[in-house]
Amino acid sequence: MMSCRKIEERQRSGGSKGLESRGDPHIEVTVQPRALDALALAVSDFGKSGGLSARECQILLLAAQGLTDKEVAGRLCIAYTTVKSYWFRVCVKLSAPHRELLISKLIVSLASNTQQR
């Protein structure tokens, strides 16, 4: 397994042998800074009301941005199984059967917060 430092160095140098080397299309998602700030605020509010830890909020925020579990693990330099464990705890704390429902609730919360401002 590659260390976080090596991953960061490879990303900075542009020497990543990721999707492009396999011929798969690479889709770049760009999130506007204001939208990202609003999303982070919604996750924070959502997390506080559900009793989530800071790390659980990070997992939820990254997933809401569209990252897969493996990408979240790489970004936070934790094991893939640890991400799965966090997801289990988040679902239990927020009484949701699956993550899709959590993210849809988060989006509804974000939309209502945006309309109130």
- CATH first level: which class? Mainly Alpha
CATH fold call: Arc Repressor Mutant, subunit A
Q: Which consecutive residue ranges, at least 5 long each, have pLDDT under 50? A: 15-29
Radius of gyration from CA coordinates: 16 Å
- Termini separation: 45 Å
Number of domains: 1
Estimated helix fraction: over 70%
CATH superfamily: Winged helix-like DNA-binding domain superfamily/Winged helix DNA-binding domain
Structural category is: mainly alpha
CATH architecture: Orthogonal Bundle
Report the β-strand fraction as a percent range.
Answer: under 5%
- SS elements, strand count: 0
Q: How many distinct helices?
A: 7
Give me the strand/helix succession: HHHHHHH
Question: Can you offer a commentary on this structure?
Answer:
It is built from 7 helices and no strands. The protein has 117 residues and is mostly helical. It has a single domain, classed as Arc Repressor Mutant, subunit A. α3 (33-50) packs across α4, α3 crosses α7 and α4 (54-64) packs across α6 (80-93). The radius of gyration is 16 Å and the shape is globular. The N and C termini lie far apart (45 Å).
Fold topology:
Elements (H helix, E strand, L loop, with lengths): L3 H10 L5 H4 L10 H18 L3 H11 L4 H8 L3 H14 L5 H18 L1
What descriptors fit this protein?
globular, Arc Repressor Mutant, subunit A, 7 helices, mainly alpha
Summarize the structure.
It contains seven helices and no strands.
